[in-house]
Every structure is written in C-alpha cells, then in structure tokens.
Amino acid sequence: MYQGLSAKRFLRSNDLLFPNVMKVFSIRDYGKVRAVELGGSPFGKPLMTTRVFLLDNILIDSGLKHCRKEVIELIRENPVSAVYLTHFHEDHSGNAAALQSQLNLPVLGHPITVEKMKSPRLVFPYQRVMWGAASSLDMMPLQGNIETDHFLLQPIHTPGHSRDHLSFFEAEQGWFFSGDLYLGDRIKYFRADEVFKDQVSSLEKALELDFEALFCTHNPKPVKGKEHLRRKLDFFQNLSGGVGELMKKGFPAKVIMKELKVKEPLLVKLMCFGNVSAENMILSIMESLS
Ligand SMILES: [Fe+2]
Question: What per-residue confidence (pLDDT) applies to 170?
Fold first, then answer.
C-alpha cells in the first residue's frame, strides 16, 4: 500500500497537547533498504524530518511519536521481528514503546539507551513540538551482531552526538546506518550534551570501514557515503584547528565565533532555549583542546 507513496497530510496527532499535526510520510527504496521519511508539526510544514529503515525483517529506529499511527500501520503491512534503536533521542525512539506494546516487538539498543528509555524523560518544549515525547519502555541491551534473513549488521558504538549512539555496519552490502553521526558535510550547531572529541573519534572509527551507502536518518547519502562522512571529519578538523589558534590568543568562545565567522542561528537557539546552538559546538571544541 505504501510503495512509492508520498504524502503531506493534516491529521489528528497522537499527542494530546497538539491534536492537529501536519504530517509527512514518504517511502523511498534504496535497493533492499526501504527508507520511510516521517515528519510532523502542529504549526505548518515540519522544519525537519526523520527516517526509519526497513530491511528484511528488522526496523532501524522507530520515528517520531507524532507519526505513531503511520509507523504502526507501516509495520503491520511490513512485519518485522525486532526494532533496533541507534540512540534514545525522541525522533528515533518515539514509537518504540508503541511497537513493543501494540505489536509485541522486542526493542534493542545500547545499554545506555536501555537505561535512558526506562524512565519518562522531560523534553524541551521544542522537542515536544517537533517530535512529540517518547514513552518509556523496558528494552533489551543489544549483544553481538544482528542477523536478518539475508544480512549481517555489526553494531558499532559511535558516541559523541549522544553517549549511547550506535551505528550499524553491513560489510557485504557496503551499508552504514549512521543514525545521527553524519547529518551533513558541515554542521551548524550542537545540542548541549554533544561531545566534539567523541564525535571525531567516532567518525575516525567509521571511516576505517568500507562502505558506499550512508544511511543517515536525516540526510541519507546512498552513493559516495563514505566521502560525505570524510567531509564532515575534515570540516570538524579544520574548525578545530581554527579554534585552537584563537584559543592560544586567549579569546573566549564568542570572539572565536566572530573571528571564524561562525554564525549563531538565533531563532534556533531561542526556540530551543539554548539547548541547540553554534556556541555549544565551539565550547565543545574548546573543551576537547584544553
Ligand atoms: Fe539525535
């Protein structure tokens, strides 16, 4: 039913605070990997979308809670035997509890993700608006590789964006499911809890692997994916070099930003109560250098 369907719809949400949400639901097949793009916003077109990936009999990530109905329907029509989370953020874990309770599916991830998902978490208002709040659940720690009917995925701990972040590598097919490790060749801002140093180590770790397709949740690069990931590492290293030079002169973060022409996206910073900002990124780089 969903094959090739793209839809932008104004539907009732699953979130009591936001009963009417403009939704995005779109399917794209990259060979044997089905990417389902999801988005939702109570105030017009969603600013950002996210994806879940279906391959064989598994689902990677569970999407945002605003799209719970669509995700449940998708999995009813494309049955899977397990759900694997890359990390605990709302746009990845939003429907994990519903998939477990309504479809009786096991949900697995990093042990830190298991801990994070145990108790109800407070989210910033912007997260509630953009994604909806994920419900708590008892999920299982992932141990060893994931064997599907035709594929073998190796979980790789790639912290930095979040402490619990996992990527999944399929060596035979040359696929790398990168969660939020990539996002773009250049990054404009960090969440407050992102760690630059760990992101660099994770990017270096990923670049030791051999893959073509980079299945990023927000920005997939099916061709030359590894080159894109390398570009992000180059961007980070160049930025870090510039920050390091200015730190030697004793400049504070705000002056470093001005010197390097790193712009603060003020609207984003305001909307996110400072939880997302360019300054967070610069401060994290400075911390990695001190
Ligand atoms: Fe994330």
Answer: 98
Q: 22: CA distance to ligand 1 center in Å? A: 21
The whole-number pLDDT of residue 119 equals 84
Q: Are 183 and 228 in contact (CB under 8 A)?
A: no
Q: How far is the CA of 56 from the centre of ligand 1 (A)?
A: 24
Residue 139 has pLDDT above 90, yes or no: yes
3-state secondary structure of 290: coil
CA–centroid distance, 93 to ligand 1, in Å, is 10
- Rounded CA gap, 199 and 151, in Å? 27
* Residue 142 Cα to ligand 1 middle (Å): 19
Neighbours of ion ligand 1 (CB under 5 A): 89, 180
Distance CA 21, CA 257 (A): 37
Please give the pLDDT value at position 5.
38
pLDDT tens string 70-126: 999 999 999 999 999 999 998 999 999 999 999 999 999 999 999 999 985 656 666
Domains of the chain listed by start with CATH number: 1-143 (3.60.15.10), 151-290 (3.60.15.10)
CA atoms of 168 and 206, how far apart (whole Å): 10
pLDDT of residue 96: 96
The helix (H) or strand (E) run that includes residue 59 is strand 58-60
